[in-house]
Amino acid sequence: MRKLAALLAGLTAAFAMTGSAPAQTGDAQLDGTRHPNVGALLAKRTDGSLGIICSGTLVSPRVFLTAGHCADFMFLLGQFDAFVTFDPNFGTDPLHDIFSTPYHGALVQNPRFHVPAQNDTAIVLLDLAVTGIAPAKIAPLGFLDGLQDAGTIQTTKFTNVGYGTAEQVVVPGTGPIFPGDGIRKFTISGFYSLTPEYIHLNQNLKQGYSGTCFGDSGGPTFVGTANGPVVISVVSSGDNPCYTLSVDERLDIANPQQFLAPYLALR
Full-prediction pTM beyond 0.85? Predict the structure, then answer.
């Protein structure tokens, strides 16, 4: 798991970029309108413009779900409110961003969150309900345990969606960089392991998978069901170059569901 300092360094680098954070690892595909309920968590830069910090998901008309460490980073910036956009191309150029109309809300961190990434959930409680976008459904309690017990988790496809940077590229004379373009993308990961709090996903390109990186934190991982896709986790951490493994906070366990319940009931 990444050290918090390394994670915050990556977030800071992404935030400082022109247009900010963006494109996922490997064979990431443009998301377009496939996942309209996946958005970007935005913070104010020193010049007053907005930059992408993390990703997240609309899970009710007023609740945007993201990672607890993303809220922590915002608090370190002295920002206790946030903006959210569902524009799939936010960050591509300053003029485009000016005409985008982000939603505003208050940051609420899971009270049981603690570093580096325990109980790693937070929300933006939006001032106004989002219309025209169907919220994503959260997986029910024990969903992943059920897949594991049935022996199907090994062959399950895990779809990640977010605005994060690509995996590390080493440039001679410059050093490592994490390219980004401000566009929402999706990737497909495979199963690696399951713990009581986290699901670890395989994003090794050499094994035919891809995955998440800096700026994808807080973004969703979807699994298809007979009744449509459900969000099984939020991106929490992973290996520093984003080559092989992601570590995601499960949503099908008691803690995040207890945290979310009173906010999901709001209208």
Answer: yes
